[in-house]
Amino acid sequence: MGAWHKQTSERFSDFVMPDKDKLISFVIGTGKEPFKTTCATADFAAVMAIAGRVYQPFNPAYGNRSLAAAKRAWTWIEKNPNVVFHNPSGILTGEYGDAHCDDERLWAAAELFRSTGDAAYGKYFYDHYQAFRKSNDEAEPPSWNNVSSLAFWTYAQAKGADRDVVNAIHHDVIGAADGIVKNSVYSGYNISLTTRDYVWGSNGVLANYGMQLLVADALVHNTRYRDEALEDLHYLLGRNTFSLSFVTRVGENPVRHPHHRPSVADNNEEPWPGLLAGGPNKGREDPVMRKLSRDLPPARMYVDEQEAYACNEVAINWNAPLVFLLAGALDGNAVDAAKPPAKGTRKRF
Q1: How far is CA 180 from CA 71, 135, 172, in A?
Q2: 76, 128, 157, 307: which sits with the fewest CB atoms below 10 Å from its CB?
Q3: What is the rounded CA–CA span in Å between residue 170 and residue 341?
Q4: Is the domain defined by 162-333 classed in CATH 3.20.80.10?
């Protein structure tokens, strides 16, 4: 059972409410057999494996159905190990292509191993994980096309995992987290971003750094990682060079003009709440941002305008780590950022 890459219209819709969007929506494949893609199918397998174990205590039937779907997807991946996607002619919406699906396959194997304990999935991870280990200065936070760290984190929590591999993962997690904390020392706002990180969706990069730090704390119990993750959250909620909360409707001075169609089209002066704007972007890839001076430092390359899609777009792939970061801030009974949760209150994620 393979998964299609995306569902989309041929072009982006106008700024209208969903019920006013009359463009035809298509299921888009590769244009040739087998039409579906390895990356999408592996992502599906990983998520369904997670659903299989998460829902099991509450809805066993749905949990079993999800896990069965994950297994069928893995079977498809084995037969189609690297079918990649490119936008067909005439499709102008975001491609989100990925030329390498090995990291998605590693993640799927790890999630299936954790959910089933099946040695075959564990062996696949064992045989392939070394290719994704990186030195501390090369470590990157997860992103939509870089999910190997998700594979590492879940394998480290799986029953029956190889102890030497788990120790290697812990070593890498600690090294990466220490590097992130070290970078924050050189930031005027004590955050994880470096100059190179002010790209399209820099706030998503920062939220993913925060998630990486929270995972490191959960695996090795070092609260300085959690404290630094909370510093990143402070930045997103207003402690930044603009004194601006990058989350709509949150704080005294939040973003008000995100590149978000329902927020523009609903005849409400305020945007929809809880949306994380993309953030400063040194690339300046839209007409509004190109009007900004090139002499501005990267952290100042932002404007709160609807048409500035390269810095004010909202997207699920940076709202998701924000939710994780907020959940981490509320984890346990600690109200004070410097106070770790009471013993026994941590939960495996």
Answers
A1: 36, 13, 12
A2: 307
A3: 21
A4: no
